[in-house]
Amino acid sequence: xxxxxxxxxxxxxxxxxxxxxxxxxxxxxxxxxxxxxxxxxxxxxxxxxxxxxxxxxxxxxxxxxxxxxxxxxxxxxxxxxxxxxxxxxxxxxxxxxxxxxxxxxxxxxxxxxxxxxxxxxxxxxxxxxxxxxxxxxxxxxxxxxxxxxxxxxxxxxxxxxxxxxxxxxxxxxxxxxxxxxxxxxxxxxxxxxxxxxxxxxxxxxxxxxxxxxxxxxxxxxxxxxxxxxxxxxxxxxxxxxxxxxxxxxxxxxxxxxxxxxxxxxxxxxxxxxxxxxxxxxxxxxxxxxxx
Length: 291
Hints:
By secondary structure, the protein is an all-alpha fold. It has one domain. The chain contains 12 helices and no strands. Helix 2 runs parallel beside helix 11. The longest helix has 32 residues. The radius of gyration is 19 Å and the shape is globular.
C-alpha cells in the first residue's frame, strides 16, 4: 500500500517539534542555573503556563474564523525584497550595537534610560522603513489596515488565551494585578500606546508586511513564507531574551517562543489580508506581558 505524505503537514510537524523542544530546553537551562530560587511545584507551574501562552494563540488562530469578505489580498511586491534585506541588516546592526554597549541585564537600567533606548531604536526602525520604502518605491499604503468587528473579537479571544493562564495557575494574583492596573490607569494606557507604535506596528509592517510580501513575491506557498518570516522574526529577539537575564545559550533556544508568535501573527495576516489584527494582538501581548 502506497503511503502518501502531505508535505505541508510533515514540515509543520517538524517545525513545531523543533520549536517545542527548543523552548523546553531553554527553560531547562534556566532552571538548572537558578534552581535554588524555585521549588519543584513552581517550576512545574511556570513550564505549564509558558506552554499554554504559546499553544493557546496557535490553537485559537487555527480554529477561529478569521476569514474576511474583502476581495483584496495581502499586498505582494517584488520591491519588498530589497527593502526587506536592507531593513534586516539595519535591525541586526542595531541589535549588535545595543548588545555591545549595554549591560547583559537591561532590567538594571533606569526607566528613563529604557525609554530613551526604546525611543532611539523606534526612531531608527521607522526612519529605515520609510526611507528604504521611498527609495525603492514600495508603497506602504498598499498594506491593508482594515479590521471588522468579528475579527476584533477573535483577536481578543486569542489574546486572552495567552494572558489568562498565569492567573489560572496562580503564578500571578488576579486581585493584586487588577489593583495595580486601576492605581495607574494613565500609565497602563500610555504603555499600550507605546507598544502599539513600538514594537507592534513597526515589527508587523516589517515582518508580516515587507518580509512576508518579499517571500510571497517568489511565488512561494503561504505556509512556507510564513514559517520563514516567523523564524527570522524569532531569531532577531535573541538579544531581547538575553537582556532579560537569560544566558546567551538559553536566549537562543528561547527564541522558539517568538518564532511561534511570529507564525501566529503571520497566519492572522494571511487569513485577514490585513496587518491591523496582528498589530492589535502584538500590542496587547507586549503591553500586558502575556508571555
